[in-house]
Amino acid sequence: MTTAAVSGMLLVTNRNALQEFHVDSPLTEEASGVLYKLPNLRDLEVVIEKGTRLPSASLPNLTELTIRCNNEDEWPQLFHGATFGNLRSVTFLLRSEEIGDFLGVFERAVLSLSVQNTLSKFRLSAQYLWTPKFSSLLPSTQLVDLDIGSFCNGGCSSRLVGNIVISLSRAMSKLETLTLGDRPCDQSTIGITTMGLLALAHRCPQLSSFCVHLQVASLGEPPGIPGMVPGVGPATSWKDCALAELIVGETPVPEGR
Q1: What is the Cα–Cα distance from 41 to 18, expressed in whole angstroms?
Q2: Which helix (H) or strand (E) holds 3?
Q3: Which end of the chain is more exposed for a tag (fewer CB within 10 A), N or C?
């Protein structure tokens, strides 16, 4: 009933005037054919269910896209041969308990588009524990806001290694906000190292907000010689650091640290 009502309302709307559309239910195939061709649509939030047939999107003025879905099977249809003139923000809200290489699927879906040149914000929120393959995001060098999270149900959601943080810092020097995992818990198994933190500090000078799970006991003294950090670059004065918010949540801090 909701699908029919919302779809019917969309079909009678002035298609040239519609700029924002947020819906928390699927649409009929006819309504979908209209929605993904709206010439002046700027902000879109949709639900894509399994078995949904989608047209290639032609949304030249779209800047923000939010997709609620259960898997990685249907939504890539939107990007096949799509036209996105100025897409800046993409958000995925995942409901599935089984998440495969979702980031890899996203990379392949947008690889042939100009989206990588305009995309500055990428967010993915999952309701269940999973292990993201962050390497798939490395070509997205224009990212300013990166947020990859999942709930810590059955284990820490940020099972990362320090090297991936270093790789992210090398590829995304424009980062201002970085969130890895949900709000930090007290069961952290993250392998981020001092070198990883230093890489972010040196290569991402505009980073102002950082949310990460870590084990304080695993952090050692910064290596290197005065004014230089091996493999990272010249040292930066704390006065030039943009970091204003460091979120470590319930991470336990040993006595004396």
Answers
A1: 6
A2: helix 2-11
A3: N
